[in-house]
């Protein structure tokens, strides 16, 4: 290996695939039930997904401007650094490495094998070994070629959207119009209160579109590509969710959507010639969907440590680019190895939940960097979003809704995680600054 720059090898559709592939995950299979429970009626559910998508457009516009201002790898870390706060930038990368990125890989790998066990029952240890094998497969693929990884990501994203499109295309012929005009459930909220509750419940379904910003340094012509990719992603995901919610609410009464653990599978089973195969079909869909998200995360997440190491705020070896493969192979390797260790940990999902509030605060502060960066000399994004401060405010408001809902769900855990992330990051930052960054600066 030797130190050199990563090359721009990914085009528009690879960027869209990373963004959409990260966003459309296993959550959509349960989120329709959550939105239905909050909304209480079919029309409100559909409107909630539609408006939920619209209000996520500003977040993507913010990311598009930031990505064209700093067309390099690292995403949020880079934006904090350029806003003048290296400690905050380090904190961003610190919690990404230890608290959110490898655990998310582990959880997705375990989710995939749990769906596989629906077809081939396996013991707990065998499931975990299979999860390790899956992580290793995608680790080697993304280590060996960013172009190959980009092509696979494009393919798997199309492949993961296709079953939803087929379900929508078939289900639309069997809709029950009376379900759309049915009165709201007696115990549910009504009017604007129900709509706002429904919109709030959709917000997690749209999270993750900014993932492609971690790889801006490897995107061709970022001035044109990044804004297009982020806008195509949010509009595409919104259209998919609106159509899917239209079909599900037109096939199932609200009670069934709310009370069924797998409402999409139940909706599929109401299509005459699918019937009892609905569960099998949705399990296959879930495997494909989560594989797409897993591949995307293994591809983009290690880029933040790569960027940190280039600045002397992480171990220098993470900044190395493989001589033949031209990827940050070591960074990918280490993150996946940490994820493999976590596959054998217990209560991993609960652990990740502890850091959800911290991750959301990181997003909120990222959007806030616009207010600082736009006043800096030399800030010259290749693309500027219209109504910049207003759009940024909307993006921050949406994130605040998520923060509030997360805090009310687990306030103690969130506060513990927040304090822990800061207390551990401070000495770590001092260590890396003295050992590596100060030497680079001198």
Automatic annotation (TrEMBL):
Could you state one GO cellular component term attached to this entry?
Answer: membrane
Q: What is the lineage of its organism?
A: Bacteria, Bacillati, Bacillota, Tissierellia, Tissierellales
| Gene3D superfamilies hit by this protein | Amino acid/polyamine transporter I (1.20.1740.10)
Name assigned to this protein: Serine/threonine exchanger SteT
Q: Where are the transmembrane segments?
A: 12-32, 38-57, 88-113, 125-143, 155-175, 195-217, 229-252, 281-300, 327-345, 351-373, 385-407, 413-432
- Extract the GO molecular function terms from the UniProt entry: L-amino acid transmembrane transporter activity
Pfam families xrefs: AA_permease_2 (PF13520)
This protein's encoding gene? steT
Q: How does it sit in the membrane?
A: Multi-pass membrane protein
Q: Does the keyword Transmembrane apply?
A: yes
């Amino acid at each position: 290996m030797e130190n050199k720059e990563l090359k721009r090898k990914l085009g528009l559709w690879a960027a869209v695939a990373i963004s959409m592939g990260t966003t459309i995950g296993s959550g959509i299979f349960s989120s329709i039930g959550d939105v239905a429970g909050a909304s209480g009626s079919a029309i409100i559910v559909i409107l909630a997904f539609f408006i939920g998508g619209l209000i996520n457009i500003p977040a993507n516009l913010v990311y598009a401007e930031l990505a064209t201002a700093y067309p390099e790898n690292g995403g949020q870390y880079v934006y904090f650094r350029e806003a003048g706060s290296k400690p905050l930038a380090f904190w961003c990368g610190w919690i990404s490495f230890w608290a959110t990125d490898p655990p998310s890989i582990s959880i997705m790998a375990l989710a995939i094998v749990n769906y596989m066990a629906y077809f081939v029952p396996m013991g707990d240890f065998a499931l975990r070994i299979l999860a390790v094998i899956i992580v290793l497969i995608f680790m080697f693929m993304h280590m060996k070629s960013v172009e190959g990884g980009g092509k696979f990501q494009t393919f798997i994203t199309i492949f993961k959207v296709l079953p939803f499109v087929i379900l929508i295309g078939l289900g639309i012929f069997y809709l029950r119009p009376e379900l759309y005009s049915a009165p709201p459930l007696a115990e549910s909220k009504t009017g604007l209160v129900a709509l706002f509750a429904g919109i709030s419940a959709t917000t997690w379904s749209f999270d993750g579109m900014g993932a492609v910003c971690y790889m801006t340094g490897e995107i061709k012509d970022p001035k044109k590509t990044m804004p297009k990719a982020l806008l195509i992603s949010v509009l595409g995901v919104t259209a998919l969710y609106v159509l899917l919610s239209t079909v599900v609410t037109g096939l199932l009464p609200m009670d069934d959507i709310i009370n069924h653990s797998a409402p999409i599978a139940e909706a599929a089973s109401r299509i005459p010639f699918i019937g009892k195969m609905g569960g099998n079909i949705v399990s296959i869909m879930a495997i494909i969907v989560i594989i797409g998200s897993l591949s995307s995360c293994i591809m983009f997440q290690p880029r933040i440590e790569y960027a940190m190491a280039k600045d002397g705020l992480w171990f220098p070896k993470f900044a190395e680019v493989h001589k033949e493969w031209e990827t940050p192979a070591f960074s990918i390797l280490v993150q996946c190895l940490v994820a493999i260790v976590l596959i054998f940990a217990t209560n991993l999902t609960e652990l990740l939940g502890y850091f959800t509030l911290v991750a959301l605060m990181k997003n909120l502060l990222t959007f806030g960097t616009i207010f600082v960066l736009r006043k800096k000399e030399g800030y010259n994004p290749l693309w500027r979003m219209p109504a910049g401060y207003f759009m940024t405010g909307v993006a921050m408001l949406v994130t605040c809704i998520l923060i509030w809902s997360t805090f009310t769900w687990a306030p103690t855990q969130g506060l513990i995680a927040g304090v822990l992330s800061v207390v551990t990051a401070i000495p770590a930052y001092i260590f890396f600054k003295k050992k590596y960054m100060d030497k680079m600066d001198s």
